[in-house]
Amino acid sequence: MSLTETTYLVVGASFALYVFIAIRSRAGSTQEFYVAGKGIHPVANGMATAADWMSAASFISMAGLIGLSYNGYGGSVFLMGWTGGYVILAMLIAPYLRKYGKFTVPEFIGDRYYSNTARIVAVICLIICSVTYVIGQMKGIGVAFSRFLETDYETGLFSGMVIVFFYAVLGGMKGITYTQIAQFCVLIFAYTVPAIFISLQLTGQPVPQIGLGSTLADGTYLLEKLDRTLLDLGFQEYTTSVRGSTLNMAAFTASLMIGTAGLPHVIIRFFTVPTVRAARTSAGWALVFIAVLYTTAPAVAAMARLNILQTLEPQPGQHLAVEERPAWFKNWEQTGLLGIEDKNGDGLIQYSADPDTNELVTLDNDILVLANPEIAKLPNWVIALVAAGGLAAALSTAAGLLLAISSAISHDLLKRTLMPDISERQELMASRLAMAGAVLGAGYLGLNPPGFAAGTVALAFGLAASSLFPALLLGIFSKRVTREGAVLGMLAGIGVTLAYVFQHKGIMFIPGTSFLGDLPPNWFLGIEPNAFGVVGAIVNFSVALTVSRLTAPPPASVQQLVEEIRVPVSSS
Amino acid sequence: MMDTNDVTARQVYWRENRRWMLILGTIWFIVSLGCGVLWVEPLNQIQVGGYKLGFWFAQQGAIYTFIVLIFVYARVMARLEKRLGFEEPEA
């Protein structure tokens, strides 16, 4: 059976499974549609949260970001940032919002800050964060299809949309939860199998996390070998190369951490468990499942980088001939992810840090995960599995985001603000329509990605960190923060962050409109735009606290509400 | 309405909760932004197997510690709730 046939078979089987689950788990009430009837077991919810959380970016791009763009140690910001947020979520956010016990994140902000203005501002912040995030997933679906199944990008995108449409519109949170559990199993299997094979080949050690710290066949440590090889080629050392400055790394990590704890599509997953206690343990389980991939990724990063280096230069000074490059190399050249240019015309490929003499002119981050099985000469079914895994990661995250968007529209905008008199049946219909609209909207944006689609996922974290996270935290831990404080705080936080990103990256990322230029010397304290969310959050906190001091305290009923959400049981 | 016992229990609960958040939050900071970023250079002088220690914290150790922190927090809070009578009925 050819590779394409195997891939169709594996991907087709996984899709059939998702459709089967969708038919079995239709939502019959708004409670089921928004929060899966609050009956999900904490371990099951942990698994669903892990799939919800790990996107196409985590699955396809992260190892490459760490291993190539951020040259090793610098990439630690993603590893610590995207896991450390779960500690904040488990201690500071999830249990209290679960106790509050309603359907959406803007709903809590609107009620706690006794204001429909706060509710609407929260809806807007949610939509900005989630839409920037969902565009990346739709692109991931289209790209995965076109690379592995040899369809064109549009066909791939439509197939993905049909699947999401089916289970998200029918089943809402209930359908999404059960498909996410299945998708987690597919994606984690697809990620770890090639990693285990590669670790075995390089170090003889089946556990990649241990393999990364082990010795190669020649007796040197893998990381030491990688450090030395990169230094010889003129790169920085793998294990010590800092991204920007120490302050930039700290700000980047902190922004991703608090952004994680403020992303609505993650928070609403904790509304689906039966108790406050379950919300806490569920966050722990979610991190266990996430950590399986997140502790494997740095091993994949280093091992795949070393594999590529050794393919290009098996012995020092002995370079790979252009004519003799392996089949996988040629295949990935066709997709544009790899590119060579024999600058000195010697028929050999010289890879180096110096752009003038480097002959491996294109080396895309995604290649580290996508080409990994082929570089390690693994069988076809493993390659097919990587395709199914990438699609599972993109589909599960897209569905979670679409639910966050559609419930903010049907519940917060419609039911709680514009048309409070609609019946539950009407609201359920509205939520299905909103979901259908959101899927179509996301599909449209996937087909016509706006100019700012490139670095969007990291941006979504900065925006969530600077807008929603402070409002949620203050709403739980302070009884004194007022609606004026919260609204102005959210606007100031998201405003500062967007302004900083736009002034360096261009207004709406349109090239040429960046009035300060995207140059490190112009960065505030050397902090890069993607790491600025934490500064926006500090602005949000300061504005909210100052304005609250100058305005009348919240009414007694709101202070009572804060008292209530802090303990797991209601007072009799 | 809340009676006085309930008010005291709530105060104890919230005080204990904040104490644990502070303790676990400090460890959270030390293993990630501390060992993984701020003190990474001195820690890298220590070699554990093939790993430099600072690098290990940044790419492995911090994540393992985070998991432990969440389960410890979940456990101490569940015990506290049992002690103070704030235990939720199983749904």
Structure notes:
- The complex is a heterodimer of chains A (572) and B (91).
- Chain A is an all-alpha fold and 572 residues long.
- Chain A has a domain at 3-308 and 377-448: Orthogonal Bundle (Hydantoin permease).
- Chain A has 23 helices and four strands.
- In chain A, the strands form two sheets. Chain A has a two-stranded antiparallel ribbon.
- The mean pLDDT of chain A is 87.
- Chain B is mostly helical and 91 residues long.
- Helices cover 79% and strands 4% of the residues of chain B.
- In chain B, a hairpin with a 2-residue loop joins β1 and β2.
- The model of chain B has no long low-confidence stretch (mean pLDDT 91).
- Chains A and B meet through α5, α10, α11 and α13 of A and α1, α2, β2 and α3 of B.
Short description:
The complex is a heterodimer of chains A (572) and B (91). Chain A has 572 residues and is mostly helical.
The computed structural class of chain A is: mainly alpha
Biggest β-sheet strands, sense, barrel of chain A: 2 strands, antiparallel
The percentage helix of chain A is 55-70%
Number of domains as seen in the coordinates of chain B: 1
| Global Rg of chain A | 24 Å
Largest sheet, spatial ordering of strands of chain A: 1-3
* Low-confidence residue ranges of chain B: none
* Head-to-tail CA distance between termini of chain A: 67 Å
**Interface with most residues:** A-B, 53 and 47 residues
The overall pLDDT of chain B, averaged over residues, is: 91
Question: How big a fraction of the residues of chain A is strand?
Answer: under 5%
Strand content of chain B: under 5%
The SSE order of chain B reads HHEEH
In DSSP terms (H or I, runs of 4 or more residues), the helix count of chain A works out at 23
SSE arrangement:
The complex is a heterodimer of chains A (572) and B (91).
Chain A: H1 3-24, H2 30-35, H3 42-53, H4 56-69, H5 76-100, H6 105-112, H7 116-148, H8 153-203, H9 208-211, H10 222-232, H11 246-262, H12 264-267, H13 276-312, E1 320-321, H14 327-334, E2 338-339, E3 348-349, E4 362-363, H15 367-370, H16 372-375, H17 380-418, H18 424-447, H19 456-466, H20 468-477, H21 483-505, H22 533-550, H23 556-566
Helix pairs in contact in A: 1-8, 1-17, 3-8, 3-13, 4-13, 4-17, 5-11, 5-13, 5-23, 6-7, 7-8, 7-17, 7-18, 7-19, 7-21, 8-13, 8-17, 8-18, 10-13, 11-19, 11-20, 17-18, 19-21, 19-22, 20-21, 20-22, 21-22
Chain B: H1 4-38, H2 40-44, E1 47-48, E2 51-52, H3 53-84
Antiparallel strand pairs in B: 1-2
Helix pairs in contact in B: 1-3
